[in-house]
């Protein structure tokens, strides 16, 4: 009988222990203070990045509309034909500044000493809408005639254009003419109103040829020897 | 004395009931995890030992290795998969870093040697780190004896000038710590790249197919104050895959997967932790009196140590070891398709903050928080000498998605065609402090796409999706 009672008591204790374990709850104080992610839903198949990618639709529509309207009839050739006498008047220079030339730097990727990159920024003085583009034409003067140095480019804020200057040497400068105007105004260009004409001279110093370097070294050596002999003579 | 038949049956029944009770208690105990010396459930992970010395060097590498053309503004950035990049970095890991850190610098006897700006414009190879690496971390990474103190407290950038020393077995290095320049003449040891190889790499950079030309932005457009901010200005193109990011299958948060989640993400004392699901079922908390883990169904793991007041800060390398151990212990068998790189070390006074990024094809992968619209690193760990204090980690595994495109890397093109159209008020304003191409993934999505990230000096990060050619 005692054995049965002990066994029943043991059974009862185990059942109580099991119940206690099953009722045990977690620590309610478990908190991560800086958490803000509690309501994050399950991983979605859709791509939430789409909400953040690229472009203001209104602007895109506006910009493309403007460009299309302008593109319909704009052509660089027609502009050159219409305003050739103004563009290529040697005496003419403008006060208005749509762009400022920041840098004319040798194109380090090219072995040709005449290959350069011209960087120009739209000037803060330029009163342009954010969707209004400028046309930049770069000419070089050859035999008293202006020739396009590179294709005309269109830009909104920054122009970065590769050019190849034909003239090398300090006695042979490159005479460059920059012509800038808002694309929307191409039908009615007026100097100092909506047309910038700026001239610039760019000199390319030719790198020393090998024999010139040798000549220079020999001269240096000669000077050093003379200096040395003078010192020896002085000491004697 | 022989038991009667009925007695025997009763005894067997009682033993059966006794065993049943015992098992029931065990099962309940196992489910609630109040801590037992043995486990009722199967342990999914076998060998939990992490040898951090074997893997620590995988966490640091240069942000870029550049060849300076000597023309002042043009640099060639090496592809990290190229042989030249690997050879140069191996020279540093195997020899040069330890020589720098253990020897005294030479005297800077020429004026230009004190100007990093000038030195970095000369013909040279520049090894550039993303952050100033404390010398203690270099000691630890290189397994050196910390008894001798280094003259240089941090290493930020190193310029190799191979033509400077006339001895064939010597290479001249200029080390920049962010403010001062130190000159070291190191020995070219057996197995290192020869001196003429360094010279040849500089001279033939323009013909190297695995380089991207980079220019100083400020030379062409003063929209930055930083003299050392390099961007690609030419029409270089690169094929970039979208990435598929998923929470690793083994730790997907489900009711029937809690054991595996615990095995992979909690520490060795997981048996003593209690768990609690959030009411909406999106996350689960595991906690004990010392620490709290919170794991979300989007793969975000948050960890906090409760008793932060009673910790000793220690040295940065000790804290870094704790941070790396925290990652290594959990990443095995889970994360594929991406490296994890240490991107920043910051001394926060009472602890150190370590930022890590996933890197795929030389591009970092960062998180876009949909709720706040902010971009964050995937892993941030705060640690002290003997423990991790806080951690926040998006545990993800990576694969190429089904979409790729050809992207133009020209910053000029991006600026003209995208940036100023979206931010016309910033046109030609001097606001840019950094430019990079990185992947972003939404914290509730499964896709990472390439973005332009523009840091401004107004503490604003602008991110705009890269536009493909096709």
Description:
The complex is a heterodimer of chains A (236) and B (470). Chain A folds into 2 domains: 141 residues, Immunoglobulin-like (Sandwich); 29 residues. In chain A, 33% of the residues lie in helices and 23% in strands. Chain A contains 4 helices and 8 strands, in the order αααββββββββα. In chain A, strands 3, 4, 5, 7 and 8 form a 5-stranded antiparallel beta sheet that branches. A 3-stranded antiparallel beta sheet of chain A has the order 1-2-6, with no helix packed on it. Chain A is flat. The relative contact order of chain A is 0.11. Among the domains of chain B are: 158 residues; 118 residues, TATA-Binding Protein (2-Layer Sandwich). Chain B contains 10 helices and 23 strands. Chain B has a 15-stranded mixed beta sheet that branches. An 8-stranded antiparallel beta sheet of chain B has the order 6-5-4-3-1-2-7-8. Chain B is globular and about 105 Å long. At the A-B interface, helix 1, helix 2, strand 1 and strand 2 of A face helix 1, strand 10, strand 11, strand 12 and strand 13 of B.
Task: Give the biggest sheet of chain B.
Answer: 15 strands, mixed
How would you spell out the order of helices and strands of chain A?
Answer: HHHEEEEEEEEH
**Second CATH tier, the architecture of the largest domain in chain A:** Sandwich
From the alpha-carbon coordinates, what is the Rg of chain A to the nearest angstrom? 39 Å
Q: Any low-confidence stretches of chain A, pLDDT <50, length ≥5?
A: 25-48, 50-69
- The backbone outline of chain A, from C-alpha atoms, is flat
| CATH class category name of the largest domain in chain A | Mainly Beta
Strand percentage of chain A: 15-25%
Give the class of chain B from helix and strand content and strand pairing.
alpha+beta
How much helix is in the residues of chain A?
A: 25-40%
The major sheet of chain A is characterized as: 5 strands, antiparallel
Shape type of chain B: globular
**Total number of helical segments of chain A?**
4
The class by helix and strand makeup of chain A works out as alpha+beta
Question: Largest protein interface?
Answer: A-B, 60 and 75 residues
Computed over alpha carbons, the radius of gyration of chain B is 27 Å
User: What is the residue-averaged pLDDT of chain A?
Assistant: 76
List the total number of helices of chain B. Answer: 10
Number of strands of chain A: 8
Average predicted confidence as pLDDT of chain B: 90
């Amino acid at each position: 009988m005692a054995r049965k009672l002990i066994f029943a008591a043991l059974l009862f204790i185990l059942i109580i222990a099991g119940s206690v374990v099953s009722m045990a709850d977690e620590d309610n104080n478990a908190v991560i203070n800086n958490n803000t992610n509690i309501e994050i839903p399950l991983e979605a198949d859709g791509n939430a990045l789409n909400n953040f990618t690229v472009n203001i639709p209104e602007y895109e529509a506006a910009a493309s509309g403007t460009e299309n309207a302008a593109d319909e009839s704009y052509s660089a050739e027609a502009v050159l034909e219409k305003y050739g006498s103004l563009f290529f008047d040697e005496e003419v220079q403008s006060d208005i500044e749509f762009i400022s030339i920041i840098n004319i730097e040798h194109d380090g990727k090219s072995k040709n000493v005449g290959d350069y990159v011209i960087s120009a920024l739209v000037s803060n003085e330029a009163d342009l809408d954010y969707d209004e583009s400028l046309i930049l034409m770069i000419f070089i003067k050859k035999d008293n005639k202006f020739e396009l140095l590179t294709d005309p480019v269109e830009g909104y804020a920054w122009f970065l254009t590769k050019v190849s200057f034909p003239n090398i040497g300090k006695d042979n400068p490159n005479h460059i003419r920059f012509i800038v105007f808002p694309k929307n105004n191409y039908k009615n260009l007026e100097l100092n109103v909506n047309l910038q004409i700026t001239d610039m001279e760019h000199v390319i110093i030719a790198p020393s040829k090998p024999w010139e370097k040798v000549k220079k070294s020999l001269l240096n050596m000669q000077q050093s020897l003379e200096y040395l002999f003078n010192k020896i003579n002085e000491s004697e | 004395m022989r038991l009667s038949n009925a007695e025997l049956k009763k005894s067997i029944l009682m033993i059966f009931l006794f065993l049943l009770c015992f098992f029931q208690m065990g099962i309940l105990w196992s489910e609630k995890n109040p801590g037992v010396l043995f486990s009722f459930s199967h342990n999914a992970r076998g060998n939990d030992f992490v040898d951090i010395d074997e893997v620590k060097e995988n966490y640091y590498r240069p942000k870029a290795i550049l060849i300076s053309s000597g023309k002042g503004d043009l640099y060639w950035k090496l592809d990290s998969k190229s042989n030249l990049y690997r050879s140069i970095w191996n020279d540093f890991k195997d020899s040069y870093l330890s020589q720098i850190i253990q020897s005294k610098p030479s005297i800077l006897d020429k004026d230009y040697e004190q100007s990093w700006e000038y030195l970095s414009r000369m013909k040279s190879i520049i090894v550039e780190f993303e952050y100033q690496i404390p010398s203690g971390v270099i000691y630890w990474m290189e397994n050196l004896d910390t008894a001798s103190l280094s003259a240089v407290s941090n290493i930020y950038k190193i310029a190799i000038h191979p033509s400077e020393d006339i001895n064939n077995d010597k290479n001249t290095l200029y080390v920049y710590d962010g403010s001062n320049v130190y000159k070291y003449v190191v020995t070219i040891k057996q197995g290192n790249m020869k001196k003429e190889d360094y010279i040849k790499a500089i001279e033939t950079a323009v013909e190297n197919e695995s380089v991207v030309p980079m220019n100083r932005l400020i030379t062409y457009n003063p929209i930055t104050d930083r003299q050392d901010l390099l961007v690609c200005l030419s029409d270089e193109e690169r094929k970039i895959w979208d990435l598929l990011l998923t929470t690793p299958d083994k730790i997907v948060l489900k009711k029937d997967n809690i054991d595996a989640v615990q095995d992979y993400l909690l520490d060795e004392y997981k048996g003593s932790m209690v768990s609690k699901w959030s009411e909406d079922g999106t996350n689960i908390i595991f906690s004990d009196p010392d620490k709290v883990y919170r794991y979300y169904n989007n793969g975000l793991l948050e960890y906090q140590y409760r008793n932060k007041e009673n910790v000793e800060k220690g040295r940065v390398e000790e804290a870094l070891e704790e941070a790396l151990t925290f990652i290594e212990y959990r990443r095995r068998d889970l994360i594929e398709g991406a490296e994890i790189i240490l991107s920043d070390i910051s001394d926060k006074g009472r602890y150190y903050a370590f930022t890590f990024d996933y890197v795929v094809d030389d591009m970092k992968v960062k998180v876009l928080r949909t709720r706040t619209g902010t971009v964050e690193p995937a892993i941030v760990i705060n640690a002290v000498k003997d423990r991790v204090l806080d951690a926040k980690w998006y545990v993800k595994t990576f694969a190429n998605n089904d979409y790729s495109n050809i992207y133009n890397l020209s910053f000029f093109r991006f600026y003209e065609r995208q940036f100023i159209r979206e931010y016309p008020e910033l046109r030609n304003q001097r606001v840019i402090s950094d430019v990079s191409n990185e992947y972003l993934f939404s914290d509730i999505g499964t896709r990472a796409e390439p973005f332009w990230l523009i840091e401004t000096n107004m503490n604003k990060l602008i991110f705009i999706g890269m536009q493909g050619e096709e």
